[in-house]
Amino acid sequence: MDWNFLYRNALQYAxxxxxxxxxxxxxxxxxxxxxxxxxPPQKILGILHECVRAGKQREVQTDKRTIQVLVRQxxxxxxxxxxQAGNMGNAASALGVHSYVHVLLKNRQQxxxxxxxxxxxxxxxxxxxxxxxxxDSDAPxxxxxxxxxxxxxxxxxxxxxxxxxxxxxxPNSVLKIDEEFAECIKGMLPKVNHAFISGFHNLTLKDRxxxxxxxxxxxxxxWKRINGKLRIHVELGNFQSLRILxxxxxxxxxxxxxxxxxxxxxxxxxxTLQVEGSLWKACDTLCxxxxxxxxxxxxxxxxxxASQSRQEALLFGxxxxxxxxxxxxxxxxxxxxxxxHQIKVNEVGVRKYDEFKKINFxxxxxxxxxxxxxxxxxxxxxxxxxxTGYFLLK
Length: 394
Description:
The protein is an alpha/beta fold. Helix content is about 40%, strand content about 20%.
């Protein structure tokens, strides 16, 4: 299989097939990124030890004071846009997509973190480009602790680059919907066929979480009444409670056209819905239960759909994520063209393809190995970046 050839074809296809407009809701925040090289503070040693030993990303909610104390102790290396809606809106806007992003607290500093503000529209006395919105307010903060392969905590060394996310996110922890966004977006929907929904994993068991999820479900139903062609992609996350994931699976997933997740998120979904079997078979079952599913990991991705092949979309999503990992920023189409000259396919992903081919799926299955990025400049938000490229080609 000539994967480089297929990647080139996917890029050319994306230039013609990418959506012109998209909606991104609901979670945006500021990421303070710290690249760990030394022993971490005692306060987070236990959870970081677990993260490094397992070789998996973790997200843990905390309070504002803890974030402030840690930032004073270890500082941070860079400030970035964060949150799934923020990350995906940023990735889409770099490709020229008009991105209608749900931002609850229109903090001045956060607005500056949109990389292509002329393509990002925020509800503030009507929709305005992000560079024309500036409010003096707090913003949700996530402290992102990035570590490289080989980073040691105790006697354990990280098997791959990854991160621990400590989040202080009061608005998103109750999934509050901005009333102005909810009203203004109705006028935009006739020209929008793609909407990304995320942020459920930030919910807590407090504050009538079932009502909060029902509010989102009602909004999705209203959107689809306005535009019958609107397609909804739900991107999962590291849920704080499986009760909340169960409610999302019951109320929201049946309304969606696609759902995306990584390995840890899949394990939570399997446990919640009592789905058994291997990675391949579990995803096949979930596709039959709900909708089109897409699994993404650092080595490969694959999707299952009732009838449609999605390989070009998988490859384009992987190309976007690979560029962001290598360059530390989101890509334009021109930058992707240059990047194509240096891509190398992940060998673990290629070997997984041999395993994938032997599976007898009930649904239409597509596969793509990820790109090999030996020294990623960042790992947070890569799944969101992948999901953006994947779903915008629907």
